[in-house]
Design goal:
- A five-stranded antiparallel beta sheet has the order 4-3-2-1-5.
- Strand 3 (about 40-45) and strand 4 form a beta hairpin.
- It is an alpha+beta fold and about 60 residues long.
- About 25% of the residues lie in helices and about 45% in strands.
- It has helices spanning about 5-10, 55-60, and strands at about 15-20, 25-35, 40-45, 50-55, 60-64.
């Protein structure tokens, strides 16, 4: 399984996540490939957007 496959399996489009610090609920809109080892997860909420490297998602967000 490639790293990109892993990211699509663990961070599915449309899934909802809560920011552990602010409590804001976000939805994953897209996964953007920066290079073979970097995937950026694009989250949106009602009022904002957030971009995180896939390696940081579980530290900062919790899946609902």
């Amino acid at each position: 399984m490639s790293y990109l496959d892993y990211c699509f399996d663990h961070y599915p489009l449309g899934s909802q996540w809560r920011d552990k610090g602010t409590g804001t609920v976000y939805t994953i809109e897209s996964l953007n490939v920066a290079d073979s080892l970097t995937v950026i997860v694009h989250f949106t909420s009602e009022h904002s957007a957030r971009y995180l490297p896939a390696t940081s998602v579980k530290a900062e967000m919790e899946r609902l």
